[in-house]
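User: Hey, my collaborator sent me this sequence without any context and asked if I could get a structure. I don't really work with proteins. Can you help?
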Amino acid sequence: MVPRKAVQMDDKKCKKPEVQVVNFQDLMKPTVKGLMLNVGSGDNKLDGYINIDKYNVNSDVDWDAGHLPLRDCTVSIIQSHQTIEHFGYHELATIAREWYRVCRQGGAVHVTTPDIVASCKLVVDHPDSGWYLARIFGNQSHDGQHHKSGFTVPVLTNLFGYAGFADVFTANYISSDSTPYLYMKAVR
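Assistant: No problem. I've predicted the 3D structure and written it out in structure-token form, which is a compact way to encode the shape of the chain:
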């Protein structure tokens, strides 16, 4: 199933790229009732959420992101920031389908991840920077800190669209420290 609505802000057909100022906190408010998951929480625990991290002892649970021990249609929101790139390509479709399974109708998944193309350009421009290399390969401080996948707007949009999400919005964004990332919101 392909997404019914997919917005790409970096469409090459446009003469000028669309610039949109977005308050991500407003986008990430649940619109339906249900459980709230923070997948790949690390030390960034969110109040009111089940904070999930397989490699961080400070999380609430160490569930597998692709096999959540939850009933169908019980989750209102999933936040997963700087996490999805830590999974191999062979795992990604399973994870996206699992997140679709647990989301309620109207529930949403919010993902942020490094923009692989922008990250590669940063490495070319700054070949001696360990920070920019880590955007591609992870900081590799432990088993959970290796990047196994890279994303572009179409790759991220298609991953969640094919999983069944009806409304997928994916965009490039620049963080407060001028680092390029991707943001995606997928609504069931």
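In plain terms: Residues 89-102 form the longest helix (14 residues). You can pass these tokens on to your collaborator as they are.
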